[in-house]
């Protein structure tokens, strides 16, 4: 019998020390590539959560009193510390959640860059201004809890931590329990950066109990979460008794509208990239592709051809475009939705149930396009895998009505031969970010959702403001 010895991941960062979790809850950590167990994660408990908040509370007065120059220096140390762990972070992302090496490198480089961008936000005018007789000060809100998902742990953690620390808040980070492997080098990068004890704390744990304790804790002033809409609602409830400030970055079911004047040689790769980035495991994915009735057959064929041409396989292979999904649960979830699409009358244009040929090990799924109407399950619910619903519309007004007929409002994409028309259409869509003909990387422009995609905005000045309270002083 083969004995597999797996590593135990039971470290937390509390009050400047890397220490073992008090919690004893264990769970398997698996590779997306092989499906095999690669480690055992130990999750924190109520004691771990309370200790982390206490450390952040004690560190707050000194940290919030640091000068902007001092904070800039510490942010640079964090950027350097993340850079030093670049390769480890990339490998961990690829192994645990199956994103390609190229995408992982992009995610990790931007994780480091968040600490550089945050330094540029630290200008005196942001923190003090004169309004009539009032001197208006922006002060750190207090201890902030940062809760992150598994689809690129380092990116979400760095994005939130960089502005929270820049604002003068001390933080408790709770990475996803489904992303423990990816979060290990991130924990090390924080531990190595040499910030004062208690300024950054990292605890692992599930929503219950650790997440619930952190987000209801009376000493916590602010919670920022990126996760599902269901979790965001629980967190908003948890925080209401102590009136916590919340930033909620939640789910999406974003539309990509291909207008009837679109050049398909451009529109089809744009729609496919918007839908299948990160193996479809992206909140901003354009998972409903809306196509005009007048060009229905031509566009369906072009979309199917483009998806069929994408190489599915080992995410470490440079030719791979679509790797595996996170774990067995995610695989089953994707299969469930493909089946639901078929059961409700959808036609599979490409892909379908089961593993792709030759990829029976690991969590590989077939990138799938299914026809749907906007009231069907696959057009309404977030799948979080490479499955896209293709929906036919009659005319421009119908396209906009379909795009808006969703509880979500995170992103939208418009493909058109006429940019001004694209802008007119995009502005009628209820979503936080609207991309016309190209996917733009804009870490300084506001990011966030309308409707049940969330509350508040992140990135740039908008992101920093979410960690500041406003005080008007009259004298
Ligand atoms: P999830 O909601 O299951 O978990 C997210 C985080 O919330 C995890 O750390 C989890 O432990 C924590 N959590 C769960 N219950 C909690 C509770 N009661 N109290 C406190 N914390 C709790 O989401 P996931 O599966 O990790 O990530 C996928 C989801 O995240 C998708 O819905 C996706 O759209 C969304 N997402 C949104 C964005 C965005 O920017 N809007 C980005 C990426 C992912």
List the helices and strands and how they pair.
Elements: E1 7-9, E2 11-14, E3 17-20, E4 25-30, E5 37-43, H1 46-64, H2 68-84, H3 86-97, H4 101-120, H5 124-127, E6 128-131, E7 134-140, E8 144-147, H6 153-167, E9 171-174, H7 180-192, E10 200-202, H8 207-216, E11 222-226, H9 229-240, E12 245-249, E13 254-258, H10 264-276, E14 286-292, H11 296-308, H12 328-343, E15 348-350, E16 368-371, H13 377-380, E17 387-393, H14 396-404, E18 411-415, H15 419-427, E19 433-436, E20 454-455, H16 460-465, E21 468-474
Parallel strand pairs: 1-5, 8-9, 8-11, 9-10, 11-12, 13-14, 13-18, 14-17, 16-17, 18-19
Antiparallel strand pairs: 2-3, 4-5, 6-7, 7-21, 12-20, 15-16
Helix pairs in contact: 1-8, 2-4, 2-7, 3-4, 3-7, 4-6, 8-9, 10-11
The structure holds nicotinamide-adenine-dinucleotide.
The site of nicotinamide-adenine-dinucleotide (NAD) has 32 residues, from helix 8, strand 11 and helix 9.
Task: Describe it.
With 475 residues, the protein is α/β, with parallel strands linked by helices. The chain has two domains: 7-250, Aldehyde Dehydrogenase, Chain A, domain 1 (3-Layer(aba) Sandwich), CATH 3.40.605; 255-443, Aldehyde Dehydrogenase, Chain A, domain 2 (3-Layer(aba) Sandwich), CATH 3.40.309. It is built from 16 helices and 21 strands. It has a seven-stranded mixed beta sheet, sandwiched between helices. It has a six-stranded mixed beta sheet with strand order 10-9-8-11-12-20, with helices on both faces. Strand 8, helix 6 and strand 9 form a beta-alpha-beta unit. It is globular and about 65 Å long. The model has no long low-confidence stretch (mean pLDDT 97). Nicotinamide-adenine-dinucleotide binds at residues 147-151, 174, 176-178, 206-208, 211-212, 215, 225-228, 231, 234-235, 249-252, 283, 382, 384, 410, 449, 454. Nicotinamide-adenine-dinucleotide binds next to helix 8, strand 11 and helix 9.
